[in-house]
Amino acid sequence: MDLKDIQELIKFVAKSGATEVDLEIDNIKISIKSPAKKKRGEVDEITTIIQQAPAQVVAAPVVPAVSTPAPAADENANYITVKASMIGTFYRSASPENPPFVSVGDTIKEGDTICIIEAMKLFNEIESEVSGKIVKVLVDDASPIEFDQPLFLVDPS
After folding, report:
1. Per-residue pLDDT tens over the stretch 58-108
2. Domain co-membership, 95 together with 39
3. 153 CB neighbour count, 10 Å cutoff
4. Does some domain include residue 63?
5. What residue numbers bound the domain in which 129 lies?
6. DSSP assignment string, 90-148
7. According to the model, what pLDDT value does residue 147 have?
8. In a domain, 35, yes or no
9. Distance between first and last Cα of the chain
10. Among 98, 92, 97, 154, CA closest to 117
């Protein structure tokens, strides 16, 4: 079970209205708890606890790691990384029928809407804090994202 599966499980539990779910798959235990009811104006809070059972240690031959240079890091050194300001679902456009707010090659300025992040049924327009040219979109449309996750690379020149 990878992080994406866990995120989908959390979303499913939140939508189902269940207040507590315990799940054990292989040696991984997952417990998801959320408040039973919320009062008007309160924010949903979901707590996830993941425990991994101790694995048996098996001796394996030691293989030296082959290190390769990371040219991508040097290429991206001149770019500004636009990061997510919240956890949610990333959308490149206001609706599936509309074109994306920004695409690779587009020039943006401070205050331009660059994407939408849906968090708890609220659609938050994310405005650019930098000016420049979009070099790369790092996240697929309608993907779950984490706080501080890189979304775009912008060339400020």
Report:
1. 555 555 555 455 555 556 778 999 999 999 999 999 999 999 999 999 999
2. no
3. 20
4. no
5. 75-155
6. EESSSSTTSPPS--TT-EE-TT-EEEEEEETTEEEEEEPSS-EEEEEE-S-TTEEE-TT
7. 92
8. yes
9. 42
10. 92
Q: Could you count the other beta carbons within 10 Å of the beta carbon of residue 9?
A: 16
Domain assignment of residue 66, yes or no: no
Q: What is the pLDDT of residues 22-70, one digit of tens each?
A: 777 777 777 777 665 544 555 555 555 555 555 554 555 555 555 455 5
**Tell me, what CATH number does 88's domain have?**
2.40.50.100
Q: Alpha-carbon distance 84 to 88, whole Å? A: 9
> Which residue(s) pair with 152 in the sheet?
82, 137
Placement of tokens 């697929």 in the chain: 140
DSSP 36: S
